[in-house]
Amino acid sequence: REYTVAILGATGAVGSRLIEQLEQSTIPVKKVKLLASKRSAGKQLSFKGQAITIEEATPEVFEGVDLVLASAGGAVSKKLLPEAVKRGAVCVDNTSAFRMEPEVPLVVPEVNEQALFEHRGIVANPNCSTIQMMVALEPIRQKFGLEQIIVSTYQAASGAGQTALDEMLSEAKDYLNGETMEGKIFPVKGDKKHYPLAFNLLPQIDVFEEDGYSHEEWKMIHETKKIMQGDMNDPKLKVTATCVRVPVVIGHGESVYFKTADTTLTAEQVKETLKTAPGVVLQDDPAHQEYPQPLTAEGKRETFVGRVRADKENPGSFNMWIVSDNLLKGAAWNTVQIAERLVENDLVHVPADPYLG
Ligand code: A2P
């Protein structure tokens, strides 16, 4: 079987990577449709060397499409993906629109691929910061049991989209030219105040909840529970997060402290486990100053882990440092990887009782 694949949000930061990852994937592609807003309709982008004209994303454009890879923002997914499902297309959604719906599997293939078998038309791709943390922690959880995660993130500007990234780069130019930096997008387009990100740190990603956590922090906590335990509210695994936007172009960093159920566990055993974990590259050699960095992770599909250290005062607990390309494993690669697994398992069918939002 060959598939007609639509990329929704093809002109965006993640969209450009979706095109590239689909070009490199094992999916037999019959036809590609590149979709964006009216503003981009008529422009051209290339797929495997062939020029493709961008179409405006409307409900009708999904006629005849088998698979949709979506990254055009939550509101667009909410409106258009049910329309695509109605027309028989299975959707893999990179936005947060449906992640917490019990009918929608939230999947990191290395962790919970089996959830794909339950899909009813829409599969959600988790938040970028959650994905790389799951890839690194699941093998440890499987082998030794996991009781608590405390994470602080260092998230790159590209995670906020192409326009936001462009703004940070132009702020940097202004700063170096001795001009005043004027933030218009960061920390969040939809919030009241804006600050420059260049040469700065912003401890706000997405809007704030009533309890003082940012929505990004909320996502990391609840998505982790849903992916690892199947239930976003399961209290067995304790998770807490602080999310910070940093002036890095591509590549999210995470300082993770975790408590296992095994008080005799050593850092060596954790490293041995990570060495053979799917999707993980252990980069941990302090004597030679080897550790994961955004600049060296950029363009790679893997999740890089290093700085593994035991907390000497709390046996069974550890610190480590995780970096991955937020546009690839954090977004486009995980999305295409899910699509590959759907194809391999013959799951590109909308069931008789589809989930329509
Ligand atoms: P466009 O370039 O036409 O605005 P990013 O996350 O990098 O900001 O990219 C967002 C993507 O979502 C772009 O491809 C953008 O297309 C697309 N997009 C934004 N609004 C809409 C919309 N209303 N309908 C379809 N695509 C949209």
UniProtKB/TrEMBL annotation:
Homodimer. It comes from Ligilactobacillus animalis. Phosphate binds at R99. It catalyses: L-aspartate 4-semialdehyde + phosphate + NADP(+) = 4-phospho-L-aspartate + NADPH + H(+). This is Aspartate-semialdehyde dehydrogenase. Pathway: Amino-acid biosynthesis; L-methionine biosynthesis via de novo pathway; L-homoserine from L-aspartate: step 2/3; Amino-acid biosynthesis; L-threonine biosynthesis; L-threonine from L-aspartate: step 2/5; Amino-acid biosynthesis; L-lysine biosynthesis via DAP pathway; (S)-tetrahydrodipicolinate from L-aspartate: step 2/4. The keyword Amino-acid biosynthesis applies. Catalyzes the NADPH-dependent formation of L-aspartate-semialdehyde (L-ASA) by the reductive dephosphorylation of L-aspartyl-4-phosphate. SMART domains: Semialdhyde_dh. Its EC number is 1.2.1.11. Gene3D superfamilies: Dihydrodipicolinate Reductase, domain 2 (3.30.360.10), NAD(P)-binding Rossmann-like Domain (3.40.50.720). It comes from the Bacteria. It is an enzyme of class 1 (oxidoreductase). Keywords: Amino-acid biosynthesis, Diaminopimelate biosynthesis, Lysine biosynthesis, Methionine biosynthesis, NADP, Oxidoreductase, Threonine biosynthesis.
